[in-house]
């Protein structure tokens, strides 16, 4: 396919030009993998090894070897988490912080050199193209996983969803006591979280209404991911889970302020129906058959 050929050509061209093939990335005495890990460790205060592994998509054994190498060079310190000694916290040492600053500075200098020959118009085109490519590649590699509704990532995503509703609704939003988590557990329900680089960026759930009808709830996509098709992908996943659970019909409600959500539902084949619940924030109700 042309798209895969273009992507592979870009990967070859870019990795060569940024020095990814060099034994010492940016002249720091570290290969690219170690330098990338050092950057991520410094991106937040004492991340856990588990969080680093999830964010970078690394095998636990490989991550351990990289951390051991960085420790031996006095760039990081790995220590037990005092709140949960099963977890390991990773911190930059003083030398590690100096090395990371060099990494930042040299990366910035390299990026400036790469775009220096371009005109202002060409730089704008490049920035726009790279932003789009970054979003779409990340969207293509997002993992949609069924989780328990009480999973920390599920709670985080739902809290962000509620916060967005509170910002966008004219009257604000009060989630009330919340749904019974049991409704979102198999075999009658499901809850799905989309993760990218270890962070929850979208979610949605299915709960039963009756023997033949399920309801899609808590559909949310991080606003930084709008336009990448993640909402439609989540919707298809929830429909699939509802179908596999034996439902013939799915329903959902929404608020008129969520215009992009309404447009997505209509594109996906949902048809407007009369009110079917007592949700005080709902202004539009839809349903879709799953067996056609």
Query: How many domain modules?
Result: 2
Roughly what percent helix?
40-55%
Order of helices and strands: HHHHEEHHEHEEEHEHEE
What assembly state would you assign to the polypeptide chains in this entry?
Answer: single chain
CATH class of the largest domain: Alpha Beta
Q: What is the number of helices?
A: 9
- What strand order characterises the main sheet? 3-4-5-6-7-9-8
**Through-space gap between termini:** 31 Å
> What would you give as the CATH superfamily of the largest domain?
Gcn5-related N-acetyltransferase (GNAT)
CATH topology of the largest domain, which one? Answer: Aminopeptidase
β-strand percent reads: 15-25%
| Helix/sheet category | alpha+beta
State Rg. 23 Å
CATH architecture of the largest domain: 3-Layer(aba) Sandwich
Shape: globular
- Unreliable runs, pLDDT <50, ≥5 residues? none
| Largest sheet descriptor | 7 strands, mixed
Query: Mean pLDDT, nearest integer?
Result: 92
DSSP, total strands: 9
Structure, explained:
α8 (230-244) links the parallel β6 (213-221) and β7 (249-254). Helices cover 45% and strands 21% of the residues. The longest helix is centred in the middle third of the chain and has 22 residues, at 94-115. The model has no long low-confidence stretch (mean pLDDT 92). It contains nine helices and nine strands. It is globular and about 65 Å long. It starts with a helix and ends with a strand. Strands 3-4-5-6-7-9-8 form a seven-stranded mixed β-sheet, sandwiched between helices. The protein has a two-stranded antiparallel sheet with strand order 1-2. It is of the alpha+beta class. It has two domains: 2-117, Winged helix-like DNA-binding domain superfamily/Winged helix DNA-binding domain (Arc Repressor Mutant, subunit A, Orthogonal Bundle), CATH 1.10.10.10; 143-289, Gcn5-related N-acetyltransferase (GNAT) (Aminopeptidase, 3-Layer(aba) Sandwich), CATH 3.40.630.30.
